[in-house]
């Protein structure tokens, strides 16, 4: 058995996104843009030098995945 909020909330969100948001959004968008600026999006990430990265991305090297020895060797 599924609880009532687990059914009602997704249905209400779908109704809002599908039918109400296209009607309401043009009226509320100026207020949203005033409070929610895009300054955080405009900032560029800092570049790392090759010496700091050592050529690895998420634990793998350019030549292939990094091999990890098993900790439990019986």
TrEMBL record:
This is CR032 protein. Residues 46-74 are annotated as: Disordered. Belongs to the UPF0729 family. It comes from the Eukaryota. Residues 55-64 have a biased composition (Polar residues). Pfam families: DUF4512.
